[in-house]
């Protein structure tokens, strides 16, 4: 303890975030800050721990138990993510003499089966069709219509949708150009390796043309760039695509009966600001996961989906491909019948 330098939990978190700032994407940084925020809150409010020099293996285990059940029981995969991030954090603190040496080895994380370590929430093709049909009929060429159409048909990450400029849309080639521009606050997940051109159909180009000609606010962002999916104030906030998806994936929002038989007049989740509380709504990432599965189920080759969605085949198989083994077999059969 004598060789350690005292540090408060919130100061340690700030030091860690600053250390990782140039190493990871902003979205990853936000995720780490959010996960570790639970740990800081536990230290300060639950244990009264003001100096991480005093952190022990037993206290780390107590936090794990607290996190597992506090604010409702979390899933094993969430617990694993939480503890794995905490281990990285503690390992960093070891290097700056803030905690006891090798303390990170005492951060226990659950061992999960392969299928437990995969999320399965996704937008189904039927849901996507219902949402896009409704938007095409009643909210044509709106911001929500464009965002959801791009996410479903191009499998773009929400961050990539946000990065797009007017100049990145090439109507003559029917394509979008995805670029990594961190210096003007529009990084993409895989940085330079994520840069690519994405082909568009004639229908999607027509939608983008109508958005640009009739709906898009004529604005620039704080760097003087012209965002393709603009708001009256400039470029979309990073969370706007997710907010849009939560809002429009609620059945009641597109005129369908609530599967839970709730009255929209009385349901809190029927309000725009609480759309994420709806058990039937899904996140932006669930759209991407569902779109990838839909492409694979439609016999689009894995290598094509991998390149278009910018995800390596192993990750694609583990985290995105939700086809069952029989479906995969029947798809392979089509290629083998004439051999």
Brief rundown of the structure:
This protein is mostly helical and 339 residues long. It has helices spanning 9-20, 26-46, 57-69, 76-95, 125-138, 143-154, 158-163, 202-215, 240-248, 284-297, 302-309, 313-320, 325-336, and strands at residues 169-170, 175-178, 196-199, 230-231, 234-235.
Any guess at the CATH architecture of the largest domain?
Orthogonal Bundle
CATH topology of the largest domain: hpI Integrase, Chain A
Radius of gyration: 23 Å
Fraction in beta strands: under 5%
Number of domains: 2
Assembly type of the chains comes to single chain
Discrete helix count? 13
Which percent range fits the helix content? 40-55%
| Helix-and-strand structural type | mainly alpha
- Give the number of DSSP strands: 5
For the biggest β-sheet, the strand order reads 1-2-3
The average pLDDT is 89
Give a short account of the largest sheet. Answer: 3 strands, antiparallel
CATH class category of the largest domain: Mainly Alpha
Low-confidence stretches: 114-119
Shape: globular
**N/C terminus separation:** 71 Å
N-to-C SSE string, H for helix and E for strand: HHHHHHHEEEHEEHHHHH
CATH superfamily of the largest domain: Intergrase catalytic core
Main attributes?
mainly alpha, DNA polymerase, domain 1, hpI Integrase, Chain A, 2 domains, 13 helices, about 5% strand
């Amino acid at each position: 303890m004598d060789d350690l330098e005292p540090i408060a939990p919130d100061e340690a978190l700030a030091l860690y975030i600053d250390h990782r700032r140039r190493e990871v994407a902003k979205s990853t940084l936000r995720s780490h800050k959010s996960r570790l925020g639970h740990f800081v809150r536990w230290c300060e409010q639950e244990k009264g721990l003001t100096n991480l020099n005093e952190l022990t293996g037993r206290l780390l285990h107590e936090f794990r138990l607290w996190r597992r059940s506090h604010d409702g029981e979390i899933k094993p995969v969430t617990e694993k993510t939480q503890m794995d991030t905490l281990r990285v954090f503690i390992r960093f603190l070891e290097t700056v003499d803030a905690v006891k040496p090798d303390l990170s080895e005492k951060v226990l994380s659950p061992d999960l089966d392969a299928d437990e370590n995969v999320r399965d929430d996704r937008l189904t093709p039927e849901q996507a069709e219902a949402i896009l049909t409704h938007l095409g009929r009643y909210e044509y060429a709106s911001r929500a219509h464009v965002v959801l159409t791009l996410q479903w048909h191009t499998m773009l990450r929400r961050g990539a949708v946000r990065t797009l400029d007017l100049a990145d849309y090439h109507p003559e080639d029917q394509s979008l150009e995805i670029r990594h521009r961190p210096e003007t606050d529009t990084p993409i997940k895989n940085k330079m390796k994520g840069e690519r051109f994405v082909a568009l159909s004639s229908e999607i180009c027509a939608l983008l043309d109508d958005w640009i000609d009739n709906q898009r606010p004529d604005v620039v962002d704080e760097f003087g760039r012209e965002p393709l999916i603009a708001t009256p104030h400039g470029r979309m906030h990073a969370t706007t695509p997710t907010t849009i998806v939560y809002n429009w994936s609620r059945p009641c929002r597109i005129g369908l009966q609530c599967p839970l038989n709730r009255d929209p007049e009385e349901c809190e989740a029927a309000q725009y600001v609480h759309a994420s509380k709806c058990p039937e709504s899904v996140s932006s990432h669930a759209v991407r996961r569902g779109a990838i599965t839909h492409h694979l189920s439609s016999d689009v080759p894995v290598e094509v989906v991998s390149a278009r969605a910018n995800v390596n085949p192993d990750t694609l198989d583990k985290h995105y491909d939700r086809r069952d083994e029989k479906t995969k077999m029947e798809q392979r059969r089509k290629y083998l019948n004439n051999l």
